[in-house]
């Protein structure tokens, strides 16, 4: 064997540690997804209830235009749907809210009026004969109910955050104007789940200083501590995210802050335009329109993860069943053509650096080393005659459907590599280990598939940052076309 199958336990410590740090982010992401879903339902019910309320109000003020309750209910549902769609298109569920909640109130007023105007237009075009008095009364009732509901919803989120649900502790480095704006915006954006717990200033900051929100009542504040930022300080504050708000900081200062944050195990976010150290940023954080470059890895939503796993189980089990005659035939031909078992089992590095057994049809002679650089030419003497055909048609990969069914792999994702290759990974290349490896992916469909996977990291990084359920479906569709076309 070129490489021993006994691996050092700390070989993959970096990706595993990064995974543990991200679990808090995933928890916050789950909380945010739940909050957004609850808010959508609340907005829908509020706007639907507004139409029901105005309909019964117009009956009590002497109007005699009555409609069947089925029609009233249908119009209420349509109004609720209009309002939710308009709020969604206006970014109401993106996570942040404007300073002093002015933007939230303005959005509620505008979308309420827009949805009611659409309702009037629909009623006129479809000749629904719905009382226009009720719709006109809705111009006042709907915004009022929606604003009240938003206020109660925000209060509920604050109570949940106060109990530690879905919140991360943020330390802001910089007590200047940029730090004040960030602190105030985070205090007024509870849906972000980023709670500022301290602002670290320079040595000139007075003792026991507090930074208040930029609001009317100034009832919320964050303590300001004297600098400099140290890993001990960040750990004592249980910092989950360090935001650097020092527009005039030098490159050397920013590099030092990043080093300290890494020691404390905290991701870092920077104001736009700063001369940050040369590195690839994993993602960004939108704080009331201010886009911060961040080292926080993008996390997936629970419904995407659930849908992906359900599809993996369903398709892998179905394909294993349908292709079982072909699998048996290939196995028989491999045993007939050369000595050794039909299946080839090899250690690969998977999600968060975990080692798993990958299954393939054996395409090389038994004398070939188990762990070595894979052949790039079909004329490689290690490959058997049948193996050339299997590798050219990718039929040797079919047993990996077992890995997909077991959960070691997914249908779509970065290809898993051998441990001795991962040992030499750079920090950037180790980001491939953040997701479950797959049977197919962007790299396999590219013109660069003839070159080593880790030398074309941009394909995997693009997938990690932009992956969605429909992107996975598109990759599977193109893989099918690729297999049929044989190009």
Radius of gyration: 29 Å
Strand content: 5-15%
Order of strands, main sheet, comes to 3-4-2-1-5-6-8-7
Number of strands: 12
- Which blocks of ≥5 consecutive residues have pLDDT under 50? 1-26
Q: What is the overall shape?
A: flat
Order of helices and strands: HHHHEHEEEHEHEEEHHEEHHEHEHHH
Task: Explain what you see.
- The protein is α/β, with parallel strands linked by helices and 487 residues long.
- It has three domains: 16-162, no CATH class; 168-294, Rossmann fold; 301-485, no CATH class.
- The chain is 50% helix and 12% strand.
- It is built from 15 helices and twelve strands.
- Helix 12 (419-422) links the parallel strand 11 (410-412) and strand 12.
- It starts with 12 loop residues before the first helix and ends with a helix.
Per-chain topology:
Elements: H1 13-60, H2 69-89, H3 102-126, H4 132-162, E1 168-173, H5 177-187, E2 194-201, E3 210-212, E4 221-226, H6 231-236, E5 241-244, H7 251-264, E6 268-270, E7 283-287, E8 290-294, H8 302-322, H9 324-337, E9 343-349, E10 355-361, H10 385-393, H11 400-406, E11 410-412, H12 419-422, E12 438-440, H13 442-445, H14 457-466, H15 469-485
Parallel strand pairs: 1-2, 1-5, 2-4, 5-6, 11-12
Antiparallel strand pairs: 3-4, 6-8, 7-8, 9-10
List descriptors.
disordered N terminus, two-stranded antiparallel ribbon, eight-stranded mixed β-sheet, 50% helix, 487 residues, 15 helices, Rossmann fold
């Amino acid at each position: 064997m070129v490489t021993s199958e006994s691996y050092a336990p700390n070989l993959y410590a970096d990706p595993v540690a990064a995974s543990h740090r991200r679990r808090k982010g995933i928890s916050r992401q789950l909380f945010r997804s739940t909050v957004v879903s609850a808010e959508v339902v609340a907005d829908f019910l509020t706007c639907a209830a507004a139409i029901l309320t105005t309909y019964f109000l117009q009956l009590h003020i002497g109007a005699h235009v009555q409609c069947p309750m089925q029609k009233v209910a249908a119009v209420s549902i349509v109004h609720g749907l209009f309002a939710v769609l308009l709020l969604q298109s206006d970014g109401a569920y993106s996570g942040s809210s404007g300073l002093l909640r002015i933007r939230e109130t303005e959005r509620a007023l505008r979308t309420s009026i827009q949805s009611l105007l659409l309702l009037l237009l629909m009623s006129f075009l479809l000749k629904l004969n719905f009382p226009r008095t009720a719709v006109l009364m809705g111009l006042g009732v709907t915004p009022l109910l929606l604003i009240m509901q938003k206020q109660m919803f925000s209060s509920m989120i604050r109570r949940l955050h106060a109990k530690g649900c879905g919140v991360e502790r943020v330390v802001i480095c910089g007590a200047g104007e940029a730090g004040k704006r960030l602190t105030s915006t985070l205090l007024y954006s509870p849906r972000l789940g980023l709670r500022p717990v301290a602002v670290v200033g320079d040595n000139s900051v007075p003792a026991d200083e507090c930074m208040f929100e930029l609001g009317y009542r100034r009832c919320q504040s964050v303590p300001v501590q004297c600098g400099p930022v140290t890993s001990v300080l960040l750990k004592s504050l249980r910092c989950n995210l360090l935001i650097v708000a020092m527009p005039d900081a030098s490159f050397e200062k920013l590099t030092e802050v990043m080093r300290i944050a890494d020691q404390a195990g905290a991701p870092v976010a920077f104001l736009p335009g700063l001369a940050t150290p040369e590195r690839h940023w994993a993602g960004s954080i939108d704080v009331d329109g201010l886009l911060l470059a961040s080292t926080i890895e993008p996390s997936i939503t629970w419904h995407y993860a659930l849908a992906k796993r359900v599809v993996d189980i369903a398709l892998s089990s179905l394909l294993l069943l349908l292709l079982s005659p072909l699998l048996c035939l290939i196995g028989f031909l491999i045993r007939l053509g050369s000595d050794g078992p039909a299946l080839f089992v090899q250690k690969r590095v998977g999600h968060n650096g975990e080692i798993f057994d990958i299954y393939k049809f054996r395409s090389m002679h038994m004398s070939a080393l188990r762990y070595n650089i894979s052949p790039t030419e079909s004329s490689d003497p290690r490959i058997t005659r049948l193996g050339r055909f299997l590798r050219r048609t990718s039929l040797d990969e079919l047993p990996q459907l077992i890995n997909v069914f077991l959960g070691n792999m997914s249908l779509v994702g970065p290809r898993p590599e051998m441990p001795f290759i991962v040992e030499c990974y750079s920090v950037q290349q180790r980001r491939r280990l953040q997701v479950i490896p797959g049977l197919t992916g962007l790299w396999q469909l590219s013109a660069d598939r003839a070159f080593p996977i880790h030398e074309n990291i941009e394909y995997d990084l693009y997938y990690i940052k932009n992956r969605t359920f429909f992107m996975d479906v598109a990759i599977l569709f193109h893989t099918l076309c690729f297999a049929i076309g044989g190009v």
